[in-house]
Each structure stands twice: as structure tokens, then as C-alpha cells.
Amino acid sequence: MNTMSRLLVIACLALPFAACKKEEAQAAAVEAAPMTAPTTDDVAAWRAYVTDVAKRHMDGVNNSPYVYFLPSETSEGFGGQYERLLEKVEGDLGRGIIEGNMLLFASPSSAKAAELAVTGFSQVQAGTMKGVKVVFIGKPEDGEKVKAAAEPAGVKYVFVEAK
């Protein structure tokens, strides 16, 4: 009888742990809904949105993404920020990006983000960025420009409409 009592006690102690594991598995299966793009030029809201988009496109990416985010054209010092970010993009792409990395371009000013990406990819040789994912967040017409500039390099291009 002692053995039977011990088995019952062990089963009673193990039952709550099994229930917790089941609840954790169910919670992990339920993924949060994608965020919508901010309708304002609020930089903090845009950064949260861009982070959400980046997390949703990390499949096949082995490293932290290269995020090129421009604030709105109406923000103070935009011209200088654009020039500094363009230098960074050109430097990064000039050195080369290896397979398993992701480049993400975004801005409340879709046209300027597209211009940044197109200018950066203008110096990249065809086929030199195979296995690199490029994500562009913006308007469809700007996305097509970025796609045309980036795809010859051999990247996997992903367009996310900011809506």
C-alpha cells in the first residue's frame, strides 16, 4: 500500500506542472496581431512599428538586422540626418553584406526611404548579396523602385505596405 500512496502523491504533484506546460504551449501558439503603421510622424510610434515588422520577417536571418530608419522630412535637421544615414548605407553596402542578414528601410517619408535604398544599391554589383533579405516599408510605388534597385544584387526582397 505504501507504494501505491507514493505513486498517487507523485501524480498529484506532477499534474499542476503538466497543466502549466500546456498553457504555455497554447500561449506561444497565439501570436500577437501585426501593428499598423502610425498615421503621424511620431518617431517612437514608428520605431515600435518597424521593430514589429522586423521581428515578423526574421525567418532565415542569423544576425541583428541593419535598420535604416529616417524620421519625417518635416523633422528638425532632416537633411543632415538623411546625409549621415546615406553615408552609413553606402558604407555598409560597399563593405558587403553576407548571407543570413537583413536590411530594413523605413520612414514616414516613403519616397525618401526609397531614395536612400536606391542610392545605396546603385553601387552594389549584381549577384553579390545572395541570401540577404531586404525589407522595405512604405508605399507600393516606392517599393517597386527599391525592388528594381535591390533584386539585381541577388537579395530576397520583401515589401511591407505602410498602412
Polypeptide structure, described:
The longest helix has 28 residues, at 2-29. The protein has helices at 2-29, 43-56, 78-95, 110-121, 140-150; strands spanning 66-69, 102-106, 133-138, 156-161. Strand 1 (66-69), helix 3 and strand 2 (102-106) form a beta-alpha-beta unit. It has a four-stranded parallel sheet with strand order 1-2-3-4, sandwiched between helices. It is an alpha/beta fold. Helix 3 (78-95) runs parallel beside helix 4 and helix 4 packs parallel to helix 5.
Overall outline: globular
Count, helices: 5
* Total number of beta strands: 4
Indicate the proportion of strand residues. Answer: 5-15%
What integer is the average pLDDT?
A: 88
Oligomer: single chain
* Largest sheet, spatial ordering of strands: 1-2-3-4
Count of discrete domains: 2
**What is the makeup of the main sheet?**
4 strands, parallel
Low-confidence stretches: none
Q: Cα-atom Rg, whole angstroms?
A: 23 Å
Distance between the termini: 67 Å
What would you call the structural class?
alpha/beta
Element pattern in H and E = HHEHEHEHE
Proportion of helical residues: 40-55%
